[in-house]
Amino acid sequence: MTNDVLEQIKLGADIICITNPGGAAPSEVPDLSVLDGPYLYDSLADYRKLVKSDWFKSIEAQLEQKAGLKILAANWLFGVRHILTDKPIRTPADVKGLKIRIPPLEMWVETFKALDANAQTINFGEAYTALSSGVVDAVESPAGIDLRGEVLGGQEDPVPDRPLHHWIAPVMSVKVFNALSPDDQKILLEEAETAGEIITALTLDREQGFREKLEANGVTFVTDVDRKALAEKTKVVYGQIKQWSPGLYDKVQAAMGK
Asked: Which of 69, 78, 174, 230 is most exposed by smallest CB count within 10 Å?
């Protein structure tokens, strides 16, 4: 559905679509999908710095020129993704051979391939069946979705880690945007940015609420994760996506001041 709407917007439809910016124009501006990369950010501040950088401004310009899309704000946090399973995940060795459900997206496939997991690309609607039948022993998704979807019903002691942050953005036709008055453009950009800060705060608060409910149901959250080792192990992903421009990872790190 989102892809259909984006195609309409590219043709000039007067629509604002909330979407994952990384998937907004995979053929026209593939570098944008690096925003979903594993262990790319050490903090929310890193991401905020990235989307205010000259690198990101150049990507936005490409998106407007090549795909006809205008990002109104890129600071909307949708959620933090977790690995949930019946054993603690602390190091890359704990993921090796793990039968895990992941979404059918290249970034996720390459990430868990780098971790030597036995990853299965399964749509979320089929995740519970796969988990309860033993097709997989773990799932990867936001904790809140797992709670609402009762995926946890098949697990005794699910344990999360945080390999991926998931961001969304309001996107519209650049033709429609440019046809607005300067005052209206200013209002749209400012309010979209403000909405992003509110949504991010609500997302983080909701995540804490989900965590408390999960812990009350016997779920253990592993906090002593060797994030450095996991990040180092998955760094190879940034050289596996053939559509990306050379040196993209280093450019993004530099844009965050690292």
From this structure: 78
Candidates 28, 46, 33; CA nearest to 237 is 33
Structure tokens at 202: 């609500």
Reported pTM: 0.83
Residue in the block written with tokens 């020129």 = 65
Q: Are 67 and 29 in contact (CB under 8 A)?
A: yes
Q: What is the mean pLDDT of each run of 10 residues along the chain (258 residues)?
A: 85 94 86 91 90 96 96 91 82 93 85 93 80 85 50 42 74 97 98 96 85 80 86 93 93 94
